[in-house]
Specification:
By secondary structure, this protein is of the alpha+beta class. Strands 2-1-4-3 form a 4-stranded mixed sheet. A 4-stranded antiparallel sheet has the order 7-6-5-8.
Amino acid sequence: MGGFNKRVYVYLIVLVVLLGGFVYYQASSGAGKNLFFLRAFGEKKAADELVNVEITTIYEACGHEFSENMGQVSRKYLEEMQRLYQKDLDWQYFQNDLRAVLLKQVKGFCPDDLEKRHLKAVGDYVGIFIGPVSKEAELERIAQINIHKLPPEWKEKLLAEGMEFPNELEMLEALDSLDEFQ
């Protein structure tokens, strides 16, 4: 019986050595990246080294938010981006394990709303404002058109919420038509 136990121990030792050699070969050649027991012992998948990056811009005047997915980047590149963007105080940086967001808040209007113009009463005259009708609109100039000489429907709109136009050209056409009431 003593010889039988020795053979079992020898076979077990040979089996352990062969399995150890197999695991070492797979790990060093990169062929076994998908083997569950290699990942269990600290081997990271290539996807673990990549992070999705999103750049988001929020325009405070109109509240619009634009996001652009920049795809996946390596953690090393992401660290460099973070270092560069932290120098600019307008940018904020947020990150978790799978996603990084670079956030910029802009005080003005988004590009679409920046093209818009609106007219509204400023005292007794017509004010020309940049952007859509809102509390955040910036007065561009005051037209020398007295609102009290305008037709009642125009006067009501200008005194209430104002009149919005998609661009400056259409607003100028409307102002030209108002000139005849002066």
